[in-house]
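To fix ideas, we reproduce below one chain and its tokenised fold.
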Amino acid sequence: MNYTKLLLLLTLILSSSLLVNAQTKTKTASVKTPTLTAQAVKSSPAFAEILLRKTELAAELENYLTDYTDEFPKVKELRFELDLLTKEMNRILAVNAADSTKLTLALGKLMLRKIELERDVWNLRKQYNDEHPDVKQAKRKVEVFEAAIREIL
């Protein structure tokens, strides 16, 4: 009878030890996951392509700001495009590490082209209303690129 109690006690201790060990490993893995996710996404070709363009535009903006104010049309346009780039970067950062293989150079180029088209729409809207054929056509182009991006992501 004592052996049965001893065996039961050892089984209970071993089970508790395994349970604690499993919980510790789970907590450790969950702490590392966000860092790994961010690294996998930030090292993707799509993110790099967007970051390169954002850096180029930020440098161009700094050049303009040495001679012009925030009200200068090109400064406004650059700020608008930088905001669009930031939104797309955040969209990429929201992708799970498991899906980071989708973040290809082609996706980055699609996103950049969509941003260029959105900038064109923004410029057209300064001259025309939303019902103008040129504005409608430019908006449709943006929608085509957005659909392609959604298909990948």
Q: What stands out?
A: The chain has one domain: 29-152. The first helix runs from residue 2 to 42. The chain is about 85% helix and 0% strand. Residues 29-152 form one domain.
